[in-house]
């Protein structure tokens, strides 16, 4: 996800002046879009990193922690700061995208701190190995049980 987001961000930056022409011929729209494209690209990378790290948190069975981190970073901090930049500070469109870029960076940083600081990966690996071993033992116990019949669909 992170590499795909980085590639998409680079593509947006490379096409920052031609991309808006697909949607408008208005020079003001094209100029405004081109000017915020670096912020859009930054937000895209932050979101990709956050998504990849959130997947690791989910894989460790800590979905609640990922939800809490995103709730605080996005809703409690990011949205109010974005609104302030856009409307109170008078930055308008640039403020919206600067706020979103900062929010996704904050989310990614918080998720990275959790993934690399709070999760004890050796213990997680040991717990996963124990679950696999227990599941394999249950599978061996059930080998003598009758197998479910396959559903055959007439074509």
Question: What report would you give on this structure?
Answer:
There is one protein chain. Helix 1 runs antiparallel to helix 2, helix 2 packs parallel to helix 4 and helix 3 packs antiparallel against helix 4. 77% of the residues lie in helices and 0% in strands. The C terminus is likely disordered. The protein has 5 helices and no strands. It is mainly α.
* Oligomer status: single chain
Name the structural class.
mainly alpha
Rg is: 23 Å
Task: Tell me the β content.
Answer: under 5%
Order of helices and strands: HHHHH
Question: How many DSSP-defined strands?
Answer: 0
* Distance from first to last alpha carbon: 40 Å
The averaged pLDDT comes out at: 87
Approximate shape? elongated
> How many helices?
5
Précis, in short:
By secondary structure, the chain is mostly helical. It has helices at residues 2-14, 27-59, 63-88, 92-118, 121-141. It is elongated and about 70 Å long.
Which key features would you list for this structure?
5 helices; 77% helix; single chain; disordered C terminus; mainly alpha; 155 residues; elongated
Ordered list of secondary-structure elements with their pairings:
Blueprint: H1 2-14, H2 27-59, H3 63-88, H4 92-118, H5 121-141
Helix pairs in contact: 1-2, 2-4, 3-4
